[in-house]
């Protein structure tokens, strides 16, 4: 599977959007059966022909196949999880807080891992590669008058020990 001229292996596929044509190692197949990079997989970004069909049909009226799929999914949910699960469509619910100390420690550790993953360097000169995780100080930062949801997670390089 190697190219005889360059010795390169052909892995992945090119984005089907003519203006992009990026070689993506994990391309995503759209419902229109074309492969796109992660930046152009949204139907409105690659002028998906299925999007035009939906617009002509009227997005407010779901197709019969969609209604059948929804009904089948609800019956499957109620069969396996009881009738209340199929009726609940408000999104994921949070599990009740655990009182088990071992479970609480795991949840705190998971929260720290998520925080470290979301953190951005406070100093633009620092990069994620240049400073090992063990040499970083992670902080949640927000202005006093801002909404708590507007919180930013930053990391600083630890200096001297």
What would your notes on this structure say?
- This protein has 161 residues and is of the alpha+beta class.
- It folds into three domains: 13-57, no CATH class; 62-88; 101-157, no CATH class.
- 31% of the residues lie in helices and 14% in strands.
- It contains four helices and seven strands.
- It has helices at residues 49-57, 64-81, 83-87, 101-118, and strands at residues 13-14, 23-24, 28-29, 35-36, 120-121, 136-141, 152-157.
- The strands form three sheets. A three-stranded mixed beta sheet has the order 5-7-6, covered by helices on one side.
- The longest helix is centred in the middle third of the chain and has 18 residues, at 64-81.
- The radius of gyration is 24 Å and the shape is extended.
- 4% of the residues are buried.
- The mean pLDDT is 76.
- Residues 15-53 form the AN1-type domain.
- Residues 85-109 have a biased composition (Polar residues).
- This is AN1-type domain-containing protein.
- Keywords: Metal-binding, Zinc, Zinc-finger.
- It comes from Trametes pubescens.
The main sheet comes to: 3 strands, mixed
Number of structural units classed as domains: 3
Radius of gyration computed on alpha carbons: 24 Å
Share of helical residues:
25-40%
Shape, please? extended
- Residue-averaged pLDDT: 76
Order of helices and strands: EEEEHHHHEEE
Poorly predicted regions: none
Give the amount of beta strand, in percent.
5-15%
Strand order of the largest sheet: 5-7-6
**Count of runs of 4 or more consecutive helical residues:** 4
């Amino acid at each position: 599977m190697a190219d005889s001229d360059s010795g390169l292996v052909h892995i992945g596929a090119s984005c089907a959007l003519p203006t992009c044509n990026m070689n993506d190692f994990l391309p995503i197949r759209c419902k229109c059966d074309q492969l796109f990079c992660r930046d152009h997989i949204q139907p409105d970004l690659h002028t998906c022909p299925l999007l035009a069909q939906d617009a002509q049909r009227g997005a407010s009226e779901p197709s019969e196949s969609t209604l059948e799929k929804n009904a089948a999914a609800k019956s499957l949910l109620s069969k396996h999880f009881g009738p209340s699960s199929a009726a609940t469509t408000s999104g994921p619910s949070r599990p009740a807080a655990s009182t088990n100390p071992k479970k609480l420690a795991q949840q705190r550790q998971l929260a720290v891992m998520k925080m470290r993953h979301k953190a951005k360097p406070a100093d633009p000169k620092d990069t994620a590669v240049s400073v090992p995780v063990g040499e970083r100080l992670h902080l949640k930062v927000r202005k006093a008058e801002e909404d708590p949801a507007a919180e930013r997670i930053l990391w600083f390089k630890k200096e001297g020990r």
